[in-house]
Amino acid sequence: MKIVSDDFYHDDPIEKKSSGIFNNKFLTSFVVVIAAAFFFQSTLAANLSINSSQSVEFGQGIAVTTVCDSTVTLTPYSSFVNGSSSGTFYFSGFQLSSIDAAACSGVTFTIKAYDNSSSAPLTLFSTNTSASITDVNSSFEIAPNQSGLVLSDSQTAGSFTASFASPAALSSNVYKITVESSGNGSSSSVATVYITGSVTFSSISAHENNTCGLSDGLIYCWGLNQSGQLGNGNFTNSNYPVGVSSITNAIQISVGRNAACAVLSNGTVKCWGENGNGGLGNGSQTNSNIPTSVLNVSSAIQVSAGDGSACALLSAGTIKCWGYNYWGNAGDGTSGSGGTDVVNSSKTTPVTVSGVADATQISVGNSRTCALLTDQTISCWGYGGAGQLGNGSYSYPTSSKFVVGGIANAISISGIEDHTCALLSTGAVKCWGLGNQGQLGGAVLWDAAKGAYLSSTPVTVAGISSATSISTGFNHSCATITGNTIYCWGSNSNGQLGDGTLNGTGITSQIAGEWTLTSTPIQVQGINDAGVIKNGGAHSCALSTSDTLKCWGSNSYGQLGISSNTDKKLPFLV
What we know:
Mean pLDDT is 85; it is low at 1-56. The chain contains 1 helix and 43 strands. It has 2 domains: 43-197, no CATH class; 199-573, Regulator of chromosome condensation 1/beta-lactamase-inhibitor protein II (Methylamine Dehydrogenase, Chain H, 7 Propeller), CATH 2.130.10.30. The two termini are 40 Å apart. It is elongated and about 80 Å long. The strands form 9 sheets. It has a 7-stranded antiparallel beta sheet with strand order 2-1-12-11-6-7-8, with no helix packed on it. A hairpin with a 7-residue loop joins strand 9 (149-152) and strand 10 (160-164).
């Protein structure tokens, strides 16, 4: 049986961009080493990178440039310090090695550490905010007034280790470390090491090639940045979290395809990134690499960004949408279907969705929108050619809202591409729409007319009865389960199912003479403290109950946030 590609049925003017596929192996033994770090006084599992995008962890070295040598290696260390009831990790010291001792004679190396919110350096030991070591005739000495800094191997040519007798900076607070070298008749040189694992997130969001996290009102994003969707003022991709400009009071975030939006504490919404169809809602069609204000929205409690469009749920239960509207997904009764002026069918400023006044959650997918209502039913509108509206048909109306069939007790919805899933109050999950890769999680019949496996009515996900959260990707879906484990189903082409393989869960067979694709959820390995799961295009991220973040799957643009661009088939700490 031939399986067609996902965009087979899209007669859609927006050209879809496929992500690259890289299948590098992730060694399971690495997970064991990292886990052991929390029981032995060794290293903290946090990923670092410098300006060249190299990566390192506490206890591993990284080359930095100094005034006297271009290949000095910095190795920061952390250690576990016991407390009265528990202990924690501290930034406990560092090693500089591979130093050209003769060329660096007379040079002083100064280490400082910073958190993610202040330009003032952290206290490292005693009352000192820096640790300075001077190369004196090919050996090393502590600079004056630094009681509490201890040197070892200082007589070794080209290397020394400095330890803090009483370390003061928590490893979890160290966002970056700077290495400054000065003296010997040269101007000073500073290299910066970023510690991506230091930021803790209260919520996350992901889409095709991007992920963002919310931390105390601040937003950090990583991955592809061709349209400015990282919001940091440039168009450079980043494989570690970078701060979104000028937002300090965000309460909710949503990542769309090449754009992102945030609800602020005052009920307004800001968006950034791709804007060719007005998806930023600011009245223009110009991309922006910094957040811009969505017009005429002042009481938002949730925003959902999709493929060139977005919607905001207002406190009154009404919805406003903006951006791409070719299939009527803005919900105001207009569309570009049947016309040729696709761009001008878009809404560059928000319009009110008609016929919806009691929504409690929204989810914007590829050319369609769904809303969870107060009576726990779901209403969808826009493109339905693959059954995405869940109403038993394959139409794409422009003005009607259709109730998803057979669901009367939904408590959450998710649908970023061509299928949607609903979490029911019983803990069960139902999905509908395209199912070619097994992303619906149950048994789906082959539709010869459409040339695809799909379902226009909800399909019960097999074996899931105690789900607590759900998330859909392009061709896979996941659910957290009571007990804080995660199960995923569907495509596994980039390791997005997190079981250490590249084996998808969809299996085709003939049942009663009909071709059927059956999928069974499988457990993500190495996670037993999941609080919430969020899927991107072909990657997944899980936020733990203690606010740590692990991601896995496709990573061609750095969307895993682990300071590399290598795919991971098992969860990896951000």
